Protein backbone atom coordinates (compact mmCIF):
# COMPACT_ATOMS: atom_id res chain seq x y z
CA UNK A 1 0.00 0.00 0.00
CA UNK A 2 1.11 3.54 -0.72
CA UNK A 3 1.10 6.48 1.62
CA UNK A 4 -2.33 7.82 2.59
CA UNK A 5 -2.67 11.57 1.99
CA UNK A 6 -4.77 13.38 4.59
CA UNK A 7 -6.13 16.89 4.10
CA UNK A 8 -8.00 18.99 6.66
CA UNK A 9 -10.32 21.96 6.19
CA UNK A 10 -11.22 24.50 8.86
CA UNK A 11 -14.46 26.25 7.93
CA UNK A 12 -17.04 24.74 5.58
CA UNK A 13 -18.80 27.88 4.40
CA UNK A 14 -18.94 28.97 0.75
CA UNK A 15 -15.21 28.63 0.14
CA UNK A 16 -14.43 25.68 2.40
CA UNK A 17 -17.15 23.61 0.75
CA UNK A 18 -15.77 24.43 -2.69
CA UNK A 19 -12.26 23.53 -1.53
CA UNK A 20 -13.58 20.15 -0.42
CA UNK A 21 -15.49 19.59 -3.66
CA UNK A 22 -12.50 20.56 -5.81
CA UNK A 23 -10.21 18.22 -3.86
CA UNK A 24 -12.65 15.36 -4.34
CA UNK A 25 -13.27 16.07 -8.04
CA UNK A 26 -9.55 16.33 -8.78
CA UNK A 27 -8.72 13.21 -6.81
CA UNK A 28 -6.33 15.04 -4.48
CA UNK A 29 -6.02 13.27 -1.15
CA UNK A 30 -7.31 10.00 0.26
CA UNK A 31 -8.86 11.25 3.49
CA UNK A 32 -10.60 14.57 4.06
CA UNK A 33 -11.15 15.90 7.59
CA UNK A 34 -13.66 18.75 7.87
CA UNK A 35 -14.35 21.03 10.84
CA UNK A 36 -16.61 23.93 11.74
CA UNK A 37 -17.59 25.92 14.80
CA UNK A 38 -20.26 23.70 16.33
CA UNK A 39 -21.24 25.44 19.55
CA UNK A 40 -22.07 28.85 20.97
CA UNK A 41 -23.65 31.69 19.02
CA UNK A 42 -22.41 30.33 15.67
CA UNK A 43 -23.27 26.64 15.62
CA UNK A 44 -22.62 25.39 12.10
CA UNK A 45 -22.93 21.68 12.89
CA UNK A 46 -25.97 21.22 10.62
CA UNK A 47 -24.21 22.96 7.72
CA UNK A 48 -21.11 20.80 8.23
CA UNK A 49 -23.16 17.60 8.32
CA UNK A 50 -24.97 18.66 5.16
CA UNK A 51 -21.73 19.35 3.27
CA UNK A 52 -20.21 16.01 4.30
CA UNK A 53 -23.38 14.20 3.21
CA UNK A 54 -23.45 16.03 -0.14
CA UNK A 55 -19.80 15.23 -0.82
CA UNK A 56 -20.38 11.60 0.04
CA UNK A 57 -23.34 11.45 -2.34
CA UNK A 58 -21.07 12.70 -5.14
CA UNK A 59 -18.29 10.12 -4.71
CA UNK A 60 -19.71 7.71 -7.32
CA UNK A 61 -19.03 10.40 -9.94
CA UNK A 62 -15.47 11.19 -8.79
CA UNK A 63 -12.12 9.75 -9.95
CA UNK A 64 -11.51 7.76 -6.77
CA UNK A 65 -12.95 7.26 -3.31
CA UNK A 66 -12.13 9.69 -0.54
CA UNK A 67 -12.77 8.91 3.12
CA UNK A 68 -14.80 11.82 4.52
CA UNK A 69 -14.64 12.71 8.22
CA UNK A 70 -16.98 15.11 10.01
CA UNK A 71 -14.78 16.30 12.88
CA UNK A 72 -17.19 18.88 14.29
CA UNK A 73 -15.11 21.39 16.21
CA UNK A 74 -12.54 18.81 17.33
CA UNK A 75 -9.71 20.69 15.64
CA UNK A 76 -7.02 18.50 17.21
CA UNK A 77 -8.06 15.67 14.88
CA UNK A 78 -6.58 17.65 12.00
CA UNK A 79 -3.10 17.32 13.50
CA UNK A 80 -2.58 14.05 11.60
CA UNK A 81 -3.17 15.75 8.25
CA UNK A 82 -0.48 16.47 5.69
CA UNK A 83 -2.09 19.79 4.74
CA UNK A 84 -4.69 21.94 6.49
CA UNK A 85 -6.66 24.58 4.57
CA UNK A 86 -8.00 27.46 6.66
CA UNK A 87 -11.20 28.79 5.10
CA UNK A 88 -12.81 30.18 8.27
CA UNK A 89 -14.36 33.59 7.74
CA UNK A 90 -17.50 35.67 7.23
CA UNK A 91 -17.59 37.00 3.68
CA UNK A 92 -20.36 39.53 4.38
CA UNK A 93 -17.89 41.53 6.47
CA UNK A 94 -15.65 41.92 3.42
CA UNK A 95 -18.30 43.44 1.16
CA UNK A 96 -16.35 46.72 0.89
CA UNK A 97 -12.75 45.54 1.31
CA UNK A 98 -10.85 42.53 2.62
CA UNK A 99 -9.92 44.34 5.84
CA UNK A 100 -13.57 44.03 6.88
CA UNK A 101 -12.95 40.55 8.25
CA UNK A 102 -9.81 41.57 10.16
CA UNK A 103 -11.08 41.20 13.72
CA UNK A 104 -13.47 38.33 12.99
CA UNK A 105 -11.02 36.03 11.23
CA UNK A 106 -8.10 36.68 13.56
CA UNK A 107 -10.24 36.05 16.64
CA UNK A 108 -11.72 32.91 15.08
CA UNK A 109 -8.26 31.63 14.18
CA UNK A 110 -7.26 31.74 17.85
CA UNK A 111 -9.82 29.00 18.56
CA UNK A 112 -8.13 26.43 16.33
CA UNK A 113 -4.45 27.32 15.76
CA UNK A 114 -3.22 26.33 19.22
CA UNK A 115 -5.28 23.10 19.60
CA UNK A 116 -3.92 21.91 16.24
CA UNK A 117 -0.35 22.95 17.10
CA UNK A 118 -0.54 21.39 20.57
CA UNK A 119 -1.74 18.12 19.03
CA UNK A 120 1.53 17.94 17.09
CA UNK A 121 0.68 19.12 13.58
CA UNK A 122 3.81 19.19 11.45
CA UNK A 123 2.32 19.44 7.97
CA UNK A 124 1.63 22.54 5.87
CA UNK A 125 -0.94 25.26 6.51
CA UNK A 126 -2.62 26.86 3.51
CA UNK A 127 -4.75 29.81 4.58
CA UNK A 128 -7.13 31.85 2.46
CA UNK A 129 -9.13 33.70 5.13
CA UNK A 130 -8.97 37.49 4.80
CA UNK A 131 -7.02 39.62 5.37
CA UNK A 132 -4.90 36.76 4.02
CA UNK A 133 -1.45 38.15 4.85
CA UNK A 134 -2.47 39.04 8.40
CA UNK A 135 -4.02 35.62 9.11
CA UNK A 136 -0.97 33.84 7.66
CA UNK A 137 1.25 35.90 9.96
CA UNK A 138 -1.00 35.03 12.91
CA UNK A 139 -0.88 31.30 12.17
CA UNK A 140 2.91 31.44 12.06
CA UNK A 141 3.21 33.40 15.30
CA UNK A 142 0.63 31.43 17.32
CA UNK A 143 1.58 27.96 16.08
CA UNK A 144 5.34 28.37 16.40
CA UNK A 145 5.75 26.48 13.13
CA UNK A 146 8.56 26.81 10.64
CA UNK A 147 7.26 29.77 8.58
CA UNK A 148 7.98 27.95 5.32
CA UNK A 149 5.16 25.57 6.30
CA UNK A 150 2.61 28.37 6.42
CA UNK A 151 1.34 29.57 3.04
CA UNK A 152 -1.25 32.24 2.34
CA UNK A 153 -3.05 32.00 -0.99
CA UNK A 154 -2.31 35.71 -1.27
CA UNK A 155 -2.02 37.05 -4.80
CA UNK A 156 -2.10 33.63 -6.45
CA UNK A 157 -5.78 34.38 -7.06
CA UNK A 158 -5.18 37.97 -8.14
CA UNK A 159 -2.47 36.83 -10.55
CA UNK A 160 -5.00 34.49 -12.13
CA UNK A 161 -7.35 37.43 -12.46
CA UNK A 162 -4.56 39.44 -14.09
CA UNK A 163 -3.87 36.67 -16.59
CA UNK A 164 -7.57 36.45 -17.39
CA UNK A 165 -7.73 40.21 -17.95
CA UNK A 166 -4.63 40.06 -20.17
CA UNK A 167 -6.14 37.16 -22.09
CA UNK A 168 -9.25 39.20 -22.79
CA UNK A 169 -7.15 42.19 -23.85
CA UNK A 170 -4.82 40.29 -26.20
CA UNK A 171 -6.66 37.13 -27.23
CA UNK A 172 -3.91 34.84 -25.96
CA UNK A 173 -4.63 31.93 -23.65
CA UNK A 174 -3.95 32.71 -19.99
CA UNK A 175 -1.87 29.55 -19.61
CA UNK A 176 0.70 31.09 -21.98
CA UNK A 177 0.92 34.34 -20.00
CA UNK A 178 3.31 34.88 -17.09
CA UNK A 179 2.00 37.78 -15.03
CA UNK A 180 2.02 38.37 -11.29
CA UNK A 181 0.21 40.59 -8.84
CA UNK A 182 2.44 41.09 -5.79
CA UNK A 183 2.18 42.45 -2.26
CA UNK A 184 -0.93 42.36 -0.11
CA UNK A 185 -4.00 40.38 -1.14
CA UNK A 186 -6.00 43.57 -0.91
CA UNK A 187 -6.43 47.00 -2.43
CA UNK A 188 -2.69 47.82 -2.25
CA UNK A 189 -1.57 44.91 -4.46
CA UNK A 190 0.12 45.79 -7.74
CA UNK A 191 1.04 44.24 -11.08
CA UNK A 192 4.73 43.60 -11.67
CA UNK A 193 4.55 44.82 -15.28
CA UNK A 194 8.31 44.66 -15.74
CA UNK A 195 8.12 40.85 -15.41
CA UNK A 196 5.09 40.17 -17.65
CA UNK A 197 5.75 37.95 -20.65
CA UNK A 198 3.78 36.01 -23.25
CA UNK A 199 5.32 32.63 -24.01
CA UNK A 200 8.61 33.94 -22.67
CA UNK A 201 8.60 37.12 -24.76
CA UNK A 202 8.59 40.31 -22.64
CA UNK A 203 5.55 42.54 -22.83
CA UNK A 204 7.74 45.59 -23.47
CA UNK A 205 9.19 43.94 -26.58
CA UNK A 206 5.80 42.82 -27.86
CA UNK A 207 4.43 46.35 -27.44
CA UNK A 208 7.04 47.61 -29.86
CA UNK A 209 6.38 44.83 -32.37
CA UNK A 210 2.57 44.65 -32.15
CA UNK A 211 1.27 47.93 -30.71
CA UNK A 212 -2.23 47.26 -32.00
CA UNK A 213 -2.48 44.08 -29.91
CA UNK A 214 -0.43 45.00 -26.88
CA UNK A 215 -1.23 48.69 -26.59
CA UNK A 216 -3.88 48.06 -23.94
CA UNK A 217 -4.31 50.34 -20.95
CA UNK A 218 -2.17 48.79 -18.19
CA UNK A 219 -3.96 50.71 -15.44
CA UNK A 220 -7.33 49.44 -16.58
CA UNK A 221 -6.15 45.83 -16.82
CA UNK A 222 -4.52 46.06 -13.40
CA UNK A 223 -7.74 47.46 -11.94
CA UNK A 224 -9.68 44.53 -13.41
CA UNK A 225 -7.34 42.16 -11.59
CA UNK A 226 -7.49 44.13 -8.35
CA UNK A 227 -11.28 44.41 -8.26
CA UNK A 228 -12.36 41.24 -10.03
CA UNK A 229 -13.49 39.73 -6.74
CA UNK A 230 -15.87 42.60 -6.12
CA UNK A 231 -17.47 42.15 -9.52
CA UNK A 232 -18.16 38.57 -8.44
CA UNK A 233 -19.34 39.63 -4.98
CA UNK A 234 -21.73 42.24 -6.40
CA UNK A 235 -23.56 39.55 -8.34
CA UNK A 236 -23.75 36.73 -5.80
CA UNK A 237 -22.61 38.16 -2.43
CA UNK A 238 -19.60 35.87 -2.22
CA UNK A 239 -16.55 34.65 -4.08
CA UNK A 240 -16.02 30.92 -4.04
CA UNK A 241 -14.83 29.09 -7.17
CA UNK A 242 -11.58 30.89 -7.98
CA UNK A 243 -10.28 31.30 -4.44
CA UNK A 244 -11.06 27.66 -3.63
CA UNK A 245 -9.23 26.53 -6.75
CA UNK A 246 -6.25 28.73 -5.84
CA UNK A 247 -6.02 26.97 -2.48
CA UNK A 248 -6.43 23.51 -4.01
CA UNK A 249 -3.72 24.27 -6.57
CA UNK A 250 -1.36 24.93 -3.65
CA UNK A 251 -2.48 21.72 -1.92
CA UNK A 252 -1.65 19.75 -5.06
CA UNK A 253 1.76 21.41 -5.30
CA UNK A 254 2.52 20.35 -1.72
CA UNK A 255 1.24 16.76 -1.79
CA UNK A 256 2.81 16.13 -5.22
CA UNK A 257 6.08 17.90 -4.30
CA UNK A 258 5.85 19.81 -7.57
CA UNK A 259 8.21 22.74 -7.03
CA UNK A 260 5.45 24.84 -8.58
CA UNK A 261 6.09 28.58 -8.92
CA UNK A 262 3.30 30.97 -8.01
CA UNK A 263 2.94 34.19 -6.06
CA UNK A 264 1.63 33.49 -2.57
CA UNK A 265 1.91 34.94 0.90
CA UNK A 266 5.11 34.01 2.71
CA UNK A 267 7.29 35.39 5.49
CA UNK A 268 9.41 38.39 4.55
CA UNK A 269 13.00 37.89 5.71
CA UNK A 270 14.64 41.01 4.34
CA UNK A 271 12.98 40.82 0.92
CA UNK A 272 13.20 44.29 -0.63
CA UNK A 273 14.00 45.56 2.86
CA UNK A 274 10.91 44.03 4.55
CA UNK A 275 10.87 41.51 7.43
CA UNK A 276 8.70 39.88 10.07
CA UNK A 277 5.32 39.44 8.35
CA UNK A 278 3.70 37.67 5.41
CA UNK A 279 2.90 39.03 1.97
CA UNK A 280 3.06 37.77 -1.61
CA UNK A 281 6.12 37.21 -3.74
CA UNK A 282 6.77 34.42 -6.28
CA UNK A 283 7.43 31.21 -4.35
CA UNK A 284 8.52 27.67 -5.18
CA UNK A 285 5.99 25.31 -3.56
CA UNK A 286 6.81 21.69 -2.73
CA UNK A 287 6.41 19.07 -0.03
CA UNK A 288 7.99 21.33 2.60
CA UNK A 289 5.82 24.30 1.77
CA UNK A 290 7.63 27.41 0.52
CA UNK A 291 11.00 26.06 -0.57
CA UNK A 292 12.35 29.22 -2.21
CA UNK A 293 11.31 32.83 -2.74
CA UNK A 294 12.10 34.38 -6.11
CA UNK A 295 12.94 38.03 -6.61
CA UNK A 296 12.46 40.23 -9.65
CA UNK A 297 14.41 43.33 -10.58
CA UNK A 298 11.46 45.55 -9.72
CA UNK A 299 11.38 49.02 -11.20
CA UNK A 300 11.66 51.94 -8.79
CA UNK A 301 7.92 52.55 -9.11
CA UNK A 302 7.12 48.88 -8.44
CA UNK A 303 9.40 48.85 -5.42
CA UNK A 304 7.56 51.85 -4.00
CA UNK A 305 4.25 50.06 -4.58
CA UNK A 306 5.54 46.96 -2.82
CA UNK A 307 6.70 48.97 0.19
CA UNK A 308 3.37 50.79 0.38
CA UNK A 309 1.54 47.47 0.26
CA UNK A 310 3.73 46.10 3.04
CA UNK A 311 3.01 49.20 5.13
CA UNK A 312 -0.71 48.43 4.91
CA UNK A 313 -0.21 44.82 6.07
CA UNK A 314 1.92 46.01 8.99
CA UNK A 315 -0.71 48.57 10.00
CA UNK A 316 -3.35 45.83 10.18
CA UNK A 317 -1.00 43.69 12.25
CA UNK A 318 -0.57 46.62 14.66
CA UNK A 319 -4.35 46.96 14.92
CA UNK A 320 -4.63 43.43 16.32
CA UNK A 321 -1.43 43.57 18.40
CA UNK A 322 0.72 41.23 16.32
CA UNK A 323 3.39 43.80 15.43
Characterise the protein shown here.
The structure is a single chain. This protein is of the alpha/beta class. The protein has 2 domains: 6-152, NAD(P)-binding Rossmann-like Domain (Rossmann fold), CATH 3.40.50.720; 155-320, Lactate dehydrogenase/glycoside hydrolase, family 4, C-terminal (L-2-Hydroxyisocaproate Dehydrogenase, Chain A, domain 2), CATH 3.90.110.10. The chain is built from 11 helices and 16 strands. The mean pLDDT is 95.
Radius of gyration: 19 Å
The domain tally reads 2
Q: In sequence order, what are the helices and strands, one letter per element?
A: EHEEEHEEHHEHEHEEEEEHHHHEEEH
What is the count of DSSP helices, taking H or I runs of 4+ residues?
A: 11
Structural class: alpha/beta
Family: Belongs to the LDH/MDH superfamily. LDH family.
Protein name: Lactate dehydrogenase
GO biological process, one term: lactate metabolic process
Keywords: NAD, Oxidoreductase
Write the layout of secondary structure elements.
Layout: E1 6-10, H1 14-26, E2 31-35, E3 38-39, E4 42-43, H2 45-58, E5 67-70, E6 83-86, H3 102-110, H4 113-118, E7 124-127, H5 132-143, E8 150-152, H6 156-170, E9 177-178, E10 181-182, E11 190-191, E12 197-198, E13 201-202, H7 203-209, H8 211-214, H9 218-236, H10 241-255, E14 260-271, E15 274-286, E16 289-293, H11 300-319
Parallel strand pairs: 1-2, 1-6, 2-5, 6-7, 7-8
Antiparallel strand pairs: 3-4, 9-12, 10-11, 12-13, 14-15, 15-16
Helix pairs in contact: 1-10, 3-5, 6-9
Amino acid sequence: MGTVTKIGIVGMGHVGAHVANSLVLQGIGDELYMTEQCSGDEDHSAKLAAEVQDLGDSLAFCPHNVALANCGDDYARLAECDVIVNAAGKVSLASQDRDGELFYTTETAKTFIKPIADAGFDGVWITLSNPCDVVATEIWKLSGMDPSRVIGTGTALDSSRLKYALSRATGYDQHSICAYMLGEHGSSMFAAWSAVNFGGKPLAQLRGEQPERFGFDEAQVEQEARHGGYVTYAGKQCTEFAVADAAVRLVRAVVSNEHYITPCSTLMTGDYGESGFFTSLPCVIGANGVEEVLHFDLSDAELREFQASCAHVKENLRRIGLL
